[in-house]
Amino acid sequence: MIYGNQDLAALLITLKLATMTTGILLLTGTPLAWWLARSRRRFKFIAEAVVALPLVLPPTVLGFYLLIALGPHGPIGAIMTAMGGRPLAFTFSGLVIGSAIYSLPFVVQPLQDAFTAVGERPLEVAATLRASPIDRFFTVAVPLARPGFLTAAVLGFAHTLGEFGVVLMIGGNIPGSTRVISIAIYDHVESLEYGQAHALSAILLLFSFLLLMTVYGLNHRFKRVRP
Amino acid sequence: MSIKARFHIDRGAFSLDVDLTIPNRGVTAIFGPSGCGKTTLLRAIAGLETNHRGYLRIGDEVWQDEHRFLAPHKRHLGYVFQEPSLFDHLSVRGNLEYGLKRRPEGAEKISLDRAVTLLGIGDLLDRRPCRLSGGEQQRVAIARALAVSPAILLLDEPLAALDMKRRQEIMPYLESLPRELDIPLLYVSHSRDEVARLADHLILLADGRVQAAGPLGDLFSRPDLDLAHGPEAETVIKTTIAAHDDEFALSLLDFPGGRFTVARHHRPVGASVRLRIKARAVSLTLERQTGTSILNIFPATVDRMRPEGETRNIVRLMIGPVPILAKITRKSAVDLEISPGKKVYAQIKSVALLS
Predict the structure, then answer these.
(1) Which listed residue, A93, A134, A221, B153, has the most CB atoms within 10 A of its CB?
(2) Total domain count for chain A?
(3) Neighbouring C-beta atoms of residue B122, cutoff 10 Å
(4) How far is B40 from chain A (nearest CA, A)?
(5) How far apart are CA B287 and CA A204, in angstroms?
(6) How far apart are the first and last CA of chain B?
(7) Cβ contact B85–A122 (<8 Å)
(8) Which of B11, B45, B70, B73 to mutate to test the interface with A (most CBs of A within 10 A)?
(9) A180/A167 Cα distance (integer angstroms)
(10) Which residues on B lie below 8 Å from A128 (Cβ)?
(11) Do A127 and B128 touch (CB under 8 A)?
(12) Whether the Cβ atoms of residue B202 and residue B215 lie closer than 8 Å to each other
């Protein structure tokens, strides 16, 4: 068997991490993207820059700050300890938080673009048809921004799959708990186990390609349906 | 109960300052050139414009005053935008039902079936909006606005985005709306033709101010307004079909000043018909002409006169209570000694019939 137990565990953890991160980001990123797309506040650009930071920041920098924040002496870690929990550094929960921040722009930006593309008019129409703001959001904005949701979910998921630096900094490399596939590959290469590294890399490559192909294919279909 | 609308909207380079009383029945056209604030006024009535002071009462419901601003979705109105703006993610039926599902209980002035029949879209219900022509889309948009059973229907240049052929396709539906519905319609337009065909009342807007407001016939024939000048100057007279003359294929149309004889109209006796009379199709005589081929000659009184350029005068006549414009040369005005109060005969060479 080419995949060892630890490799399979890493694969499962990676999938679990990407799924949870994507779910959390869709829930939190949607209102954020909506606000960014609709707000006319002067200082909106600051929020936009913050959201885009993970795009340019080295993951190790992000991971370093998170490690400090989540560790026992950091603000979040201290709160967790005070509430009777334990610091989040080197736990799967900590990993989810790190991934969510790291992949935030990949979810928020497609959603923001999609909401911007929907424009003001359909929402005004819905208002004159007696739909309340919440009603308009769910029955008009979200369905019309559907391609954006698909892109956001897939990019968020795929980006989390390939995460390395942040995980290494805040999750460490605990097999069965925080060792994800990219770190497993790194370990194999370090130990000169090129066969296993190949096998895991191929999975990641193939999976990412299929995922992106699905997105682009579906988006083309959306565009054809709606000229 | 009428509609009271008072708005003060300041947008830097543009400001809208109006204080209007609008009849609570028939079609009131808001007419003016592009950028005069027509759309802004309509949007303010719908509550789509915010951050302004104003007062708005529709019938006995106050929608806006110093203390409150009713959100657009709580206003009992239908709104037709310039572009059809149908929801692409819903079928035509889905679009129509969107407002229907959300209309307040008890409001069932206009049923969905009625709206579908009025706009002739029965065959389109299961189609996707993107598969419809521009004209069909706009008809669906109008039906969709009616399906919420509004207390007032606002239309923002619903024909402006369409080509000539599509406009003519929708026009009969628009003309039928005021006959079939007992709600007021506010119709924004910069097309004189649409206004002449549809409006009962007119609000002339220029640079965000009301230039004049009143019944269509009065405003079209006021020599002090631009409407009464230029080659398009005309009078619109509302008449009722009194009888048909089958021998000569004519129809007799009654109006408060007398009776017109015109080419046979397809609608039955009792139906109302609008006549458009170009000012240059009206000539004046001091005595009633005999031995003339002109069928429509009315005794009239000169009401007002105003020069138009160096050669012509535009004359407003009263045929009984009904004003009518005539365009004559300045020389004729001198020769016939035309002045206010003068009794003349108006000879009308041609009339155009609308609906």
Answers:
(1) B153
(2) 1
(3) 9
(4) 14
(5) 100
(6) 28
(7) yes
(8) B73
(9) 8
(10) 46, 48, 72-73, 75, 77-79, 145, 148
(11) no
(12) yes
Residue pair B298/B258 in contact by the 8 Å Cβ criterion: yes
What 3-state class would DSSP assign to B46?
Answer: helix
Q: Which domain holds residue A174?
A: 4-36+52-225
Full 3-state SS string of chain A = CCCCHHHHHHHHHHHHHHHHHHHHHHHHHHHHHHHHHHCCCCCHHHHHHHHHHHHHCCHHHHHHHHHHHHCCCCHHHHHHHHCCCCCCCCCHHHHHHHHHHHHHHHHHHHHHHHHHHHCCHHHHHHHHCCCCHHHHHHHHHHHHCHHHHHHHHHHHHHHHHCCCHHHHHHCCCCCCCCCCHHHHHHHHHHCCCHHHHHHHHHHHHHHHHHHHHHHHHHHHHHHHHCC
Q: What one-character DSSP code corresponds to residue B67?
A: S
Q: Does residue A135 sit at the B interface (CB-CB below 8 Å)?
A: yes
Ramachandran sector of residue B276 (left: φ over 0; alpha: ψ -120 to 50; beta: rest): beta
Whole-number Å distance between alpha carbons of B344 and B324: 13
Torsion (CA) B207, B212, B216, B220 in degrees, nearest 10? -80
B interface with A, Cβ–Cβ below 8 Å: 46-48, 71-75, 77-79, 81, 83, 85, 87-89, 98-99, 102-104, 128, 130, 144-145, 148
Cα–Cα dist B137/B149, whole Å: 19
Q: Is the dihedral of CA B342, B346, B352, B355 positive or negative?
A: positive
Kindly state whether A126 is in contact with chain B, defined as any CB-CB distance less than 8 angstroms: yes
**Residue of B47, B102, B130 lying closest to A129 (CB–CB):** B102
pTM greater than 0.80 (yes/no): yes
In a domain, A83, yes or no: yes
User: Tokens 């108006």 sit at which residue?
Assistant: B346
Shortest CB distance from B87 goes to which of A130, A140, A225? Answer: A140
Q: Is residue A41 part of a domain?
A: no
Within 8 A by CB and 6+ apart from A201, the residues are A185
Q: B144 to chain A: which residues are within 8 Å by CB?
A: 129
Comparing alpha-carbon positions, the chain A residue that sits nearest to B104 is A130
Is A42 a member of any domain?
A: no
ipTM of the shown complex = 0.87
**CB pair distance less than 8 Å for B85 and A126:** no
φ, ψ for residue B316, nearest 5 deg? -100, 125
Mean pLDDT of chain A: 88
Kindly determine whether residue A131 and residue B130, on different chains, have CB atoms separated by under 8 Å. Answer: no
CATH number, domain of A31, equals 1.10.3720.10
Q: What does the pLDDT profile of chain B (355 residues) look like in tens digits?
A: 799 999 999 888 889 999 999 999 899 999 998 889 999 999 999 999 987 889 999 988 999 999 999 999 999 999 999 998 999 999 999 999 999 889 877 766 677 888 898 898 999 999 999 999 999 999 999 999 999 989 999 999 999 888 888 888 899 899 888 888 889 999 999 999 999 999 999 999 999 999 999 999 999 999 888 888 888 899 999 999 999 999 999 999 999 999 999 999 988 999 999 999 999 999 999 999 888 999 999 999 999 999 988 999 999 999 999 999 999 999 999 999 999 999 999 999 999 988 6
A43: in domain: no
Residue A227 predicted with pLDDT over 60: no
